[in-house]
Amino acid sequence: AELIKRDETKKFLENEILNALKATYGSYEIPRKFIFIDQPFSLENGMLTQTMKLKRRVVFDKYKDQIEKLYAK
Fold it and tell me: From 41's CA, which of 35, 50, 64, 73 has a CA 20 to 30 Å away?
């Protein structure tokens, strides 16, 4: 959990993700910014349904401030 909070870890992961996406997708399909969180989505924390689908509203409500910051910059 502490590792994901480090800036160098975030930069490394971002570069790896972008390089992998560039090999498959067009530049217009690749997200420019990411949010890294230290909590997995699970049934226990209410982020997933019983059929393992993402509860988008729950996730958005929990990370609303971080998501809005992505679009504010």
Answer: 73
